[in-house]
Each structure stands twice: as structure tokens, then as C-alpha cells.
Amino acid sequence: MAYINDNYQKLKAGYLFPEIARRVREFSAATPSAKIIRLGIGDVTEPLPAACIKAMHTGLDEMSSRETFKGYGPEQGYDFLRDAIATNDFKQRGIDISADEIFVSDGSKCDTGNILDIFGMKNKVAVLDPVYPVYVDTNVMVGRTGAADAQGRYDGLVYLPVTAENDFTPELPQEKVDLIYLCYPNNPTGMVASREMLKKWVDYAKANNAIIFYDAAYEAYITEPNVPRSIFEIEGAKDVAIEFRSFSKTAGFTGTRCAFTVIPKGLTAKNDKGEDVSLHALWTRRPSTRFNGVPYIIQRGAEAVYSPEGQLQVQELIRFYLTNAKLLREGLEKVGIRVYGGVNAPYIWLKTPGNTTSWDFFDQLLNKAHLVGTPGSGFGAAGEGYFRLSAFNSRANIEEAVKRFQAVVGG
Ligand code: MLT
């Protein structure tokens, strides 16, 4: 007899984005003439930067000759990429992270889920609400939660609401927690964390021997000065934090896959005997068993992000999406919608008009304007009454989306 992992049956029907895709497919089948504009899943639309493409071509050429061919690479990433990341993303910004503290991977989504492998089941986990659903669902899958209540909150997790009422600033948990997920710039709200706020969390983690999982996948979108780009800018963070970064939204690698996780060498957690164990050592061990590394060609492409021309091209790409975000923000505000985010992030978080629920607003936009967004309640109970729009799209689609949105909401 074979048995399943029963925890999977606790999961809500579908992962949020496939569920949206299913509804859109149904609508399309029933209304084939509708020209749907998708501002739901945050997936990039513009081509890879030219510097990355050139480097990938060169990498491919190397694969075509016996002398330069590469088979299995180092599971933690090639030194050329780890060095480029350490230098450009950290050292040049005055942050003391070394190349061997960087683990190259195929995605932050994967890493924020996989990281649970090296943490025990006794840990109490805190997440913001609304939250990127992967943090919650992966904890459900490994069995760290009970069942979900009617609002979709799982027993055993600590939820920290972030809404307009608290200015999207989470309170420290009332009870002691061991693992804390923070994502800044935030998905889904598009809001950022101040230095003071992160310091408060680092101090909390220190006082409670907790670890912060800091997801900085949208760091490249920070435009305002003084907004921290890495948790390691905060004093003491190297003792309490793991940071996740990605080339997906920075350089258009959502389909190409390349990201990295930073685990400081001094970071520890306790074993059952109460002894300190290096998390860096455990995480080094894990990919050695479960992963063969990101393809060489892709890592060469990621390295090119840090070349002078790559940097210019990436900045242009980000400016493009941020201009989209600005157009969405301003267009929505014109028809009286309360809008958050979109300044340091590619996401607009809006308050649905009247008392419309998030899913009702989703249906209304889809049916009347042929626009797809993401219902806030899909990110958590505290997201009810909110709605997320992604700025990842062509300029023409964004402009058209604003017009359609205004026609539906503005009457
Ligand atoms: C999102 O839309 O929230 C993101 O695309 C999800 C992801 O990066 O996995």
C-alpha cells in the first residue's frame, strides 16, 4: 500500500495563480473574442537584456567544443557568478558578504520553500497577512500546520496583518516565534520596510533566537533613497537572517531561472541537544544531494547583469516597468481608487471600490473590462477588500488597461 503526504490535502483548492489561470481560461472559452489583458501573475514581458543574451550565446558556443564544454557544475554556483554577486550587490554597497556565502539557485520561490528542509518541525512560524502564498503553502506541505479555517488561516501559523490601518507595518508577534518571513519590497502590497522597522525585527530575532527569511526579490525596484536593499544593511542581521534574491524580476529571468540565497557563515540554529549548528553548512549539504546547479549558460547570462552595459540595460528595464506602475497608479487615482505600492515595486495594491470583495472585483474586471488582476484575499484573509495589479506588461497594454479600468470603475 502506498500512502500520500496527508498535508497536501490541507491545502486550499489551487495555488493562487493556477486558480486565476483556470478562471481566465473558462472565461476565454466562453468569450473567445475578448482581448484579455493580464495583470495578474507578476511575470515579466520584455526580452532579456542584450548583454545577457550575448553572454548566453557565448556560453552556448563553449558547450559546442570539447575544450570548453561543461558538464555538472558546482551545486552552489560557479565562482564567477558568486564573485560578481558578492562584489556588486554587497561589497560595493558596504555590506560584508563573501562569495562563499552566496548559493546560486533556480529561483527564490524554490529556495523559500526548500529552506524548510534544514529547519525542525518544532519551529513556530510567523508570516505577514497578506503574504506571498508560497511561504504558507510550503509550511503546510511539510506538516507544520493544522487545517485552515474558513478565512484560509492555518492553525499553527502566526499571522501578522498588514493593512492600510497599520500603514502596512507589521507589529512584532505577541507570542515567541522562531522563523519569520519578511518580503521587501513587499509582494503583494508593493510597500517597503524602513531601516528602523528592519532593525526592530533584527532585534526581536536576536532576543528570541529566531531566524528571519528575508525575501528581497524586488530589491532592484527600490527608487527612494534610504530604503534598505538588503537586510544585511542592518546591524546584527548577519546573526539572524537569510536573504533571498532573484534575477527574475531584476533582469527578466522568470523563464530562464536564476536566483541566489545568502546564508552568512556565522548563522546558527539549535539542534535537539541545544547545540549551535551552522545553517551555512546544512544548506551547503542540501543542494549537493538534491540539486545539480543552475545551467552554465544561464549563470553566464546572470553574470552579464553586472557588466557595465548589463547594468545600464537592467536599469532601463526596471525604469520601464516602474513607468508602467506609475501610469497604473495615476490612472486609478483619477477615478478615486485608493492605491498603494508601485513606487519601489512593480505591484499596485488597491482598495476595491465600495465594499466589493476581492474575488467579486476580480470577476467584475474580467467580465466587464477583460482585465485580470489578483484578488487580495488570495494572499491572505487580511487582503480581503484589496486587489493587486502587476506592472509587468507592454506599455500599450498598460495604457489600454488604465482606460478600461477607468471605464468600469469610473462609470
Ligand atoms: C507573483 O505574481 O506574485 C509572482 O510572480 C510570483 C513569483 O514570483 O513566483
Top keywords for this entry?
411 residues, alpha/beta, Aspartate Aminotransferase, domain 1, Aspartate Aminotransferase, domain 2, 7-stranded mixed β-sheet, 4-stranded antiparallel β-sheet, 15 strands, 14% strand, binds D-malate
Account of the protein in words:
- There is one protein chain.
- By secondary structure, the chain is α/β, with parallel strands linked by helices.
- The protein has two domains: 15-44 and 309-409, Aspartate Aminotransferase, domain 1, CATH 3.90.1150; 52-306, Type I PLP-dependent aspartate aminotransferase-like (Major domain) (Aspartate Aminotransferase, domain 2).
- It contains twelve helices and 15 strands.
- The chain has a seven-stranded mixed sheet with strand order 2-8-7-6-5-3-4, with helices on both faces. The protein has a four-stranded antiparallel sheet with strand order 11-12-15-14.
- The chain is globular, with a radius of gyration of 21 Å.
- Bound molecules: D-malate.
- The site of D-malate has 6 residues, from loops.
Anisotropy-based shape:
globular
Counting H and I runs of at least 4 residues, what is the number of helices? 12
Poorly predicted regions: none
Biggest sheet character: 7 strands, mixed
The N- and C-terminal alpha carbons lie at a distance of 59 Å
What is the averaged pLDDT score? 96
Tell me the Rg in angstroms: 21 Å
- The first-level CATH class name of the largest domain: Alpha Beta
Give the name of the CATH architecture of the largest domain: 3-Layer(aba) Sandwich
The structure class reads alpha/beta
> What's the arrangement of strands in the largest beta sheet?
2-8-7-6-5-3-4
Named once each, the bound ligands are:
D-malate
Order of helices and strands: HEHHEHEHEEHEEHEEEHHHEEHEEEH
What fraction of residues sit in β-strands? Answer: 5-15%
**Helix content bin:** 25-40%
- What would CATH call the homologous superfamily of the largest domain? Type I PLP-dependent aspartate aminotransferase-like (Major domain)
| Number of separate structural domains | 2
